Amino acid sequence: MPIPERLKPAFAPARPTEPDRLPEARKRLIVALDVPSAAAADDLVARLQGTCQWFKVGLELFAAAGPVVVETLAARGHSVFLDLKFHDIPNTVAGAVRSASALGVRMMTVHAAGGPAMLAAARAALDGLADPPQLLAVTVLTSMDAAELQFAGVDRAPADQVALLATMGLAAGIRGFVCSPQEVAALRALTGPEGVLVVPGIRPEGADAGDQKRLATPAAALQAGASFLVVGRPITQAPSPASAAEAILKEMAAAIAS
């Protein structure tokens, strides 16, 4: 499935100054609405109005508010990344992908650990749609390190497991992946410039890592080849979310311009 033009980031050498790159940075920053209610999400989106275009709806908010929160965001002109990491038998995941597409989301996730048949079914579920969302396969969660993987029965290093799952996804026809900043460069080499790499685990210099173990600054992730950055707590838990977002956007713009 070809990647929609609107999702293709620019990787050409940049000449303009940092302010000229702010619009591009806004198109590549996704704010994670990891909040417990629709009211909390509405408040946060309002505080970021005019600053951020993309918002991620994950398990916490979707379980609390349901599909209506996605439809509301989309109706207001925001781009929605639905991050539910579908992981089930192929037929069930294919149905979930079709249902999520009808909500107006622009990106959504399945878990690559579901295997090649599930990934192929998820990709095929988008066939025939006039304007399909970008399908992303989640590789290894940014909260997991080598020790966590071993507890889960995986003896590979995180980078090796990410490469294995991404190679499987590519074989199934998927061209978008979620990975930590530490694997971006390797996945960019695997996917080429057409791949869409969405990267969580982003922390500005000096920010609290929280439960993230494989992370990087916004600038480092972009320079490694990230297409989009997902940022949650450094923005959503800041005294002024808009000011925190603007600081990250300026760092992104500088990285893009350099």
Question: Would you kindly provide a written description of the structure presented here, covering whatever features stand out?
Answer:
The structure is a single chain. This protein is α/β, with parallel strands linked by helices and 258 residues long. It has a single domain, classed as TIM Barrel, CATH 3.20.20. It is built from twelve helices and eight strands. The chain has helices spanning 18-26, 38-47, 59-65, 67-75, 90-101, 116-124, 146-151, 158-171, 184-191, 218-224, 233-236, 241-257, and strands at 29-32, 54-57, 79-86, 107-111, 134-138, 176-178, 196-199, 228-231. It has an eight-stranded parallel β-barrel, surrounded by seven helices. Helix 5 packs parallel to helix 6. It is globular. It starts with 17 loop residues before the first helix and ends with a helix. Residues 10-16 have low confidence and may be disordered.
Which key features would you list for this structure?
258 residues; alpha/beta; TIM Barrel
In short:
This protein has helices at residues 18-26, 38-47, 59-65, 67-75, 90-101, 116-124, 146-151, 158-171, 184-191, 218-224, 233-236, 241-257, and strands spanning 29-32, 54-57, 79-86, 107-111, 134-138, 176-178, 196-199, 228-231.
Write out the CATH superfamily name: Aldolase class I
Radius of gyration: 17 Å
Backbone shape: globular
Distance between the termini: 31 Å
The major β-sheet equals: 8 strands, parallel, barrel
Q: Write the CATH architecture name.
A: Alpha-Beta Barrel
**Which percent bin holds the helix content?**
40-55%
Question: In CATH terms, what is the fold-level topology?
Answer: TIM Barrel
Number of domains: 1
Topology as a string of helices (H) and strands (E)? HEHEHHEHEHEHHEHEHEHH
Mean pLDDT: 90
The total of beta strands comes to 8
Total helices: the number is: 12
Provide the CATH top-level class. Alpha Beta
Structural class determined from secondary elements: alpha/beta
Strand content: 5-15%
Low-confidence stretches: 10-16
